[in-house]
Design brief:
This protein is an alpha/beta fold. It has three domains: 45 residues, no CATH class; 224 residues, Aminoglycoside 3'-phosphotransferase, Chain: A, domain 2; 180 residues, Rossmann fold (3-Layer(aba) Sandwich). The chain is 53% helix and 14% strand. It has 19 helices and twelve strands. A five-stranded parallel beta sheet has the order 9-10-8-11-12, sandwiched between helices. It has a three-stranded antiparallel beta sheet with strand order 2-1-3. Strand 5 and strand 6 form a beta hairpin. Helix 5 packs parallel to helix 11. 38% of the residues are buried.
Length: 460
């Protein structure tokens, strides 16, 4: 069976056999003795907790996991079939057929799930790139880089098995040879695009660079954005098909619309059709008013806004935001591990917006240099502007604010005076930030005054 043959190339330990589904005297049996009605692939169960798409949602994928994927992929592509017939899938005719098919199949959704300007820009970018890089595409064929690959290489089809120290890359495309065979850059770009979609552009670029270095393919970097655009558009197209399906409920329909829109914006970003977004980081010690100012700034400019206290409680700890945790510094939900998870989640949330070309606001202490550097790297990889706004305030006012907060208990934050003092003691110097991306904002003024100063500093 073709499905078994193809998937055993990378997952022989998972794809075990093919059994018939039979009709045994009116009873349907698996691996029975009657007439086969269908064939079933027998697989070893993979650990659900190791599914990459789940780990991404929990911000648990880093360089180590990507290294493991690269180490599994590199030998696979070196050995993958690359005969004369397979080489044909790297020709300009087939590449153009694949891209034009996407545009033909989505033209009816223009003006609804994808804007006409975005559709035209992506079409023009794709055609221009192919026409302007004929020599590059020909070189890929000559170098033997057109292979019988995977075809569906993204996080939903990758599993990490820590018990057996293994990576399973499964469920390759077996129903369409044209989708499975092609430039290895196209497969690699799919997973890279998927990491971008999950708000991890730095990890995406790390994956591409690591794979490129591993197999010695420097041209892959030249093709990266072209194939990421292609892969994002395919995912957008699938969202369109789901949205247009009969018999789906309203929630599924709306989710399909949302996903299609996000993938199309991602494709537009790769095609250079989106302006430079801004990442605004309101940071500083507890009680300095950063959340109040950041929230007002977000409302004033209609920008997405993420507060570390809310993310920590809702997404990381899974508790109500009004649940009080008066724990000592660095303990409970404020432990080092929980804090690292919170700040990874914040960066990931910001990355998702930036890769869509959308500006976004973060609000957190960011006392550690490491976490600030993470955001600087994120902005660089997402090709975004970054602005750090350090909120300050006289200590007597901070003490009064924190005392009032403790009395009323109406805010999400559990910050208290003793927490403020510990943060102040451990707050890393801000010499890692330059004058061009740092603004110091004294918050002992009215909100209108503060917004006016912010608008003066960030006129766009």
């Amino acid at each position: 069976m073709e499905e078994l043959r193809l998937n055993r190339r990378m997952c022989a330990e998972i794809y075990l056999d093919v059994w018939p589904v039979t009709n045994d005297d009116g009873q349907i049996k698996i691996n029975g003795t009657g007439k086969p009605l269908e064939w079933a692939v027998v697989m070893q169960r993979m650990p659900e907790e190791g599914m990459m798409v789940l780990l991404l949602s929990e911000n648990m994928v880093g360089n180590a996991e990507i290294d493991a994927v690269v180490n599994r992929l590199a030998p696979f592509y070196k050995k993958a079939a690359a005969g004369k017939e397979i080489k044909n899938f790297g020709t300009l005719d087939i590449i153009s057929q694949n891209t034009e098919e996407n545009f033909d199949q989505t033209v009816s959704f223009v003006g609804n799930l994808i804007k006409e300007a975005a559709y035209s820009h992506i079409c023009n970018y794709t055609k221009s790139f192919i026409n302007n890089n004929k020599t590059l595409f020909l070189s890929r064929i000559e170098q033997g880089l057109i292979r019988e690959g995977h075809g569906d290489l993204y996080s939903a089809n990758i599993c990490f098995d820590k018990t057996n120290n293994a990576v399973y890359i499964f469920d390759c495309i077996e129903f369409n040879e044209r989708f499975r065979c092609g430039d290895i850059a196209s497969d690699v770009a799919f997973l890279a695009m998927d990491l971008d979609y999950h708000g991890l552009p730095a990890l995406s670029n790390y994956f591409v660079r690591s794979f490129s270095d591993k197999i010695g393919d420097t041209q892959l970097l030249e093709l990266k954005d072209f194939y990421k655009c292609y892969r994002a558009y395919v995912r957008g197209k699938i969202g369109c098909f789901t949205w247009a399906s009969d018999g789906i409920d309203s929630e599924t329909k709306e989710n399909a619309r949302s996903q299609a829109s996000k993938y199309f914006r991602l494709a537009l970003n790769y095609a250079g059709g989106i302006g430079v977004p801004d990442l605004y980081v309101f940071f500083g010690l507890s009680g300095t008013g950063k959340s109040t100012v950041a929230s007002a700034w977000a409302k004033n400019h209609q920008l997405p806004f993420y507060n570390s206290d809310r993310v920590r409680k809702e997404s990381v700890a899974g508790i109500p935001t009004d649940e009080r945790h008066w724990e000592p510094f660095g303990q409970g939900i404020y432990s080092r591990q929980q804090t690292l998870r919170t700040y990874r989640a914040l960066a990931c949330l910001a990355g998702k917006h930036l890769m869509q070309g959308e500006s976004v606001i973060l609000d957190a202490t960011y006392r550690d240099r490491e976490e600030r550097l993470r955001l600087l790297e994120l902005a660089k990889e997402a090709k975004a502007n970054i602005h750090f706004i350090l909120c300050t305030c006289p200590e007597h006012e901070i003490k009064e604010r924190l005392s009032q907060r403790a009395r009323t208990g109406t805010q999400v934050s559990d910050g208290r005076w003793e927490i403020y003092l510990k943060q102040k003691e451990l707050f890393a110097p801000i010499d890692d930030l330059g004058k061009d991306n740092l603004m110091i904002l004294s918050t002992d003024r009215s909100i209108p005054e503060l917004l006016h100063e912010l608008n003066e500093n960030f006129p766009n």
